[in-house]
Design goal:
Blueprint lengths: L10 H9 L4 H5 L13 H34 L4 H64 L4 H7 L3 H74 L3 H31 L28 E4 L6 H4 L7 E4 L5 E3 L4 E8 L12 E6 L4 E6 L1 E4 L6 E2 L4 E5 L9 E8 L13 E3 L8 E3 L2 E2 L7
Antiparallel strand pairs: 1-2, 2-10, 3-9, 4-5, 4-8, 5-6, 6-10, 7-9, 10-13, 11-12
Helix pairs in contact: 1-6, 3-4, 4-6, 5-6
Length: 443
Amino acid sequence: MRFKIQENAGFAKALAIAAGAGGFSLVLAFSFFTPVTVAADFDAIQEVIADKTAELQSISSKIQETQSKLAEIGAQKKTLNSAIAQLNYGIEQINLGIKSRQVNIEKLELEMRLLDDRRGKIQESVVSKKKAVGSTMRQLQQIGARDFLRIFLSNSTLSEAVSELQNTNSLQTGLMSSISELNKLSDQLAQTMVEISEKRQEIQAEKKNLQNSMAIAVQEKNDKADVLIVAKNQENVYQKQLASLQEQQDSIASQISLMEQELKAALTPGQIPSAVKGLLSWPVVMLYSGGNGRLTQAYGNIDHSLYGNHPHNGMDMGAPIGTPIYAADEGVVVRVDRNDVSSWKKYQYGTYVLIDHQNGLSTLYAHLAKYLVSAGDKVKRGELIAYSDNTGYSTGSHLHFGLYLTPVGGWKQTTSAPGLLRVPPASGLVPVAATLDPALYLQ
């Protein structure tokens, strides 16, 4: 709330407004704040924050370097050595991500100290200004609400009367000025409290990311051990295993692609929700927005080395292992599943999350490392739901983002498309429905 005194009000009216329940009591409302007595060394902390920022930039560059190396390896002919190198770079990348989160938490906590210091100084100013207002109020109350005639009659000379009037007017002016300054301090304090709350939430989110990144690091090391066990450190054994997996995956991809193309061909214009930019938000923070994501494969593009002769049924966003994945819009999680049989036998989407947005559209988030939601959960737009990886049929860490026309009656397990189907030898269920280009709906 704000204090207000009309400039053209008479002395008695001004005093009544300032001293009434709507005025003076509000000034005292600031008294519940406790001033911070120990101020942070602003310059020293700012210098450390600058160092942390530089360190984060350096780590980010190293993460991008490993991402480039992973992309290079993924484009090469698969060998046991390249598979091991890819796993090693993946482990290095997630470790860099862990280090980045640790440094960022330290930086955020330093920024929190500066905000706390600013809050303390504002609170001290509020207390000081409150005392000044109180002092002025007491002086005005001592003078009393006397009219001009009584002031003149109560003084022995005209000059004394004029002096008292000037003093009274000066007190009134000072009171209005102090209240105005107090209102400004109130705004500053409120804004600082909002910033502190946001910074606290940011710290908590990054600590959660750090904890999950550590769990992902353990899984990456286990995957490397599994590959070495299966391959038995022999290239010929690895190639045989790889050829078998490739043949199985090609069969799965062909079955799904054929069903999805038939479903899409059967659609009429009225069945497709209007393409509105911004209907969906990006599930990964992209490079141009300060994140790590970059578009690596568009919808419909045919890359014979990856998809045979089948069009790509989603968008791929390259992202380092452990990159946060967010819900593109509010909705209900209808399926959380894993198509991989093991860390070696990797099929289709790997670990995925499927969300029904209850507007005729559903989104798929695939090749995940770890998910934070369960079937039946209601999620908000921009809510953290998972972390990226390269589970499933993938040549490197990225998010496969698919957009589906939600089947009539919702996503149900079925033996014919559309719906959730079993497509052996993939594990779990695989979502199959008419697909749409996510780029037409992203902001």
